[in-house]
User: What shape does this take?
Amino acid sequence: MRRITSILLVCCLLPLVAAAQLRLPSVIGDGMVLQRNSSVRLWGKAAPSSQVRIAAGWAAEPVEASASHDGDWSAEIPTTEAGGPYTIEITSGTEQHTLQNVLLGEVWICAGQSNMSMPVRGFESQPIAGSLEAIVSSPCYPIRMYTADRTVSEHKEFNVKGRWMEAGVATTGAFSAVGFFFARTLCQALNVPVGMINLSWGGSTAQAWSSQELLMQFPEIDTTMNMQSKSPQRIPSALHNAMFHPVTGYGVRGVIWYQGENNLREPELYARLFPAMVREWRTKIGRGDIPFYYVQIAPFDYGNAAGTEAAKLREAQARCRYTIPNSGMVVTIDLGEEKQIHYASKSEVGFRLGCQALAGTYGFGKLPHNGPVYRRWEKEGGRMILTFDHAEGGLCLKPSQTTGFEIAGTDGRFIPARAEVHPRNKKQIVIWSDEVTDPADVRYCFRNFAVGTLYDAYGLPAAPFRTDNYPR
Assistant: This one.
């Protein structure tokens, strides 16, 4: 009798086992956006050695794939111009998944730590400027966002929990603010749907987003994966395995990145690790040197407003512009708040990232997108004359009680300096102090917290810098 009961139980369970064989990762789901005018990859699990048929609503013919002995399958699907909504039918044997409300458009990853994960509605008692207007107007834009659950793993995972959400009054408040405002900028300029894949966790490090294989190339990094850590988002490789790896097959146009605060005290390491991480992400995404636009960490006191730890990390990030091909950096020295690391001006960050993408990726090459960048200095008597690149329309100094500039003589002691735009060359700034008769070096906003005052004519801020760290 017991044997008969067991057989009946197995027979009852067999249909359930079979029904569970066709599976998709959560990033491939209802409401997703697929990269237009491309070849995108769909993948999943099916019965071992079975055939999988994919019929996309925009395609004239279905595509077929064969599952491996382990049940893994993938298929490349050509896409067309932006549009939708479409359905996609994925069939294997008697099983079928029908994906609804799929759009074709532009797809980007937005990744990093808390200033990327900060939602449009803000954090508690930490608002986002213009959030209510953004939420109310968001249904006007065909924006979808997939937000991956915050999770860690010792091993590279097939799936991460998450779902695609359509921008709307009831949903946009939970979207990454920087990611949403970036997407809105692209929608306004390109008039196409935009999908964002949000991989972010406050307090995370670059090490957590890098693989063990990559970290082994840096002997100074402790690669121990203590999965009981009270700060799981800092476990080396844990976010790479659990959050990034499951979406690497998804066809994206590029990446926007906002991270660095938790690598504050290792600028020299960050200057090497971050470019290496970008190379790894690009290799695993498998679409060549896709654009990678990132945000320089904002001014904040970091425990000591006059300290320079954050300034040195910003300096390392600025150097990465020259070591990461097809990249761009957004400056935020004018946006931060001394006592609030989660500052309110996220719409400006997303907009500036959008301008980087429009100019660098979408053919709007004449659109201003880089603020003034220090190039060289020369001395005229007791004054320093600084020349800048990317000073479109001439340099502008914002009226302020402080200029952000400091000047030092040969003794290396920096004191506040006066500044003005050169009367004859509007791409130059004149710096001086009555207390320094023989100037040797200049610094601009080279503090943990400083208020940026130097812009181009389009309102893009100059990046902080120091001449005492440049080759003579």
Observations:
- The first strand starts at residue 33 and ends at 35.
- DSSP finds nine helices and 23 strands in the chain.
- Confidence is low (pLDDT under 50) at residues 1-19.
